[in-house]
Design brief:
By secondary structure, chain A is α+β, with helices and mostly antiparallel strands. Chain A has two helices and four strands; from the N terminus they run βαββαβ. A four-stranded antiparallel β-sheet of chain A has the order 2-3-1-4. The model of chain A has no long low-confidence stretch (mean pLDDT 96). At the A-B interface, α1 of A face α1 of B.
Chain lengths: 66, 66
């Protein structure tokens, strides 16, 4: 398992937290969103998914991974 | 039909817009949220519901009607 923290812009409320965490869960990734820091910690299995696909999933929800 | 614009604090993104508009729809109220202005225009039938109940429905979603 790999653990990485991403900076994500555009998250503003608990709906955003849920949207991101649910999306990540669907692709088998555990996400911990920190609204105050504007960050998402992602825990994933590198043999299943890569970081680029995780970033795309977050961006598809309308947020910017910076 | 009565038309009233409420000032609402705490709305920050399109998820918030959807949450409020969906909640209002459930109680038979048409709501138009303006995120930039922090306002919700509500259009409702006074013989069905009063403004106090509408404010409560919005506050139950976690927002402040001011």
């Amino acid at each position: 398992m790999k653990n990485q923290t991403l900076k994500v812009e555009g998250m503003s409320c608990n709906h955003c937290v849920n949207a991101i965490e649910s999306t990540l869960k669907e692709i088998g990734v555990k996400g911990n969103v920190d609204l105050n820091k504007g960050s998402v910690e992602v825990i994933y299995d590198e043999s299943n998914i890569n970081l680029e696909a995780i970033k795309e999933a977050i961006e598809d929800q309308g947020y910017d991974v910076v």
